[in-house]
Amino acid sequence: MIIDLTNKTALITGATGQLGRVMARTLAKCGANIAIHYNSNQTQALELEAEIQAYGSRTIIVKADITSYDSIIAMKNKINEELGAVDIVVANAVIQYQWTSILEQAPEDYESQFDSCVMQNVYLAKAFAPAMIDQKWGRFIGINTECVMQNFPTQSAYVAGKRGMDGVYRVLAKEIGEHQITVNQVAPGWTISERDRTEHTEENASYEKSVPLKRRGTDQEIANAVAFLASELASFITGAYIPVSGGNVMPSI
Q1: Tell me: the pLDDT tens digits for 129-169?
Q2: Which of 38, 141, 208, 246 could pair with 16 in a Cys bridge, judged by C-beta atoms 3.0 to 4.6 Å apart?
């Protein structure tokens, strides 16, 4: 049993980020054509494009502001022209900001999280779901976080944005499921990335002691879950919030 995404086109937003790069490589290795979204890091996008092309996948880079509907529509048009309709949307991009307490957090930070977690996904659905409906197949995969179940101090803006995203995804799953489009979320724990390997910061005892598997997960383990949800192996899974956190958070029934 293999994950085969041959002839599928995947868009990964925030593909130049630490996790986005690994997801792009992984889906490409499964045979998908890749649209590499970036906002400002064109150099990284071009490097990733060259790497993925070496795998034999068709790929392009697309610049867009994921908080702007017009920008997302322009991105869709470019992808359609060069790769064809998008079959798989991986919503990974999020605006970064400095975390602090609710009393000290700037209102603009809550707005940025709403725009990048909620409105990004509304715009992506409006832009890409119609073609999926026409072809009776599609995948929306949102990158959420274990933080939405932790609700720790200083997480409020991030948690608020990602909880809003969760609501959009659950409703979207019910609205477009009849067209054989699945809508799911992957929720990473604190993940080891390329930066950690470079800086030798892979281990953190205070975090790991709370994780049943007693370690941090890797970026590849997150990408593996995304590839599974993108494939036919997950054809009857929709509306799911799936932590990939070593058991650090466990949704209850």
Answers
A1: 999 999 999 999 999 999 999 999 999 999 999 999 999 99
A2: 38
What CATH number should be reported for the domain holding residue 75? 3.40.50.720
Range of the domain at 161: 9-244
pTM: 0.96
Question: Is residue 249 one of the residues assigned to a domain?
Answer: no
Q: Nearest-CA neighbor of 37 among 70, 3, 7, 79?
A: 79
pLDDT in tens, 89-132: 999 999 999 999 999 999 999 999 999 999 999 999 999 999 99
Residue 3 lies in a domain: no
DSSP H helices, the chain, are 18-29, 42-54, 69-82, 107-113, 120-135, 147-150, 156-176, 194-199, 205-208, 219-230
168-185: b (≥16 Cβ within 10 Å) or e:
bbbebbeebeeeebbbbb
Q: How far apart are CA 192 and CA 214, in angstroms?
A: 13
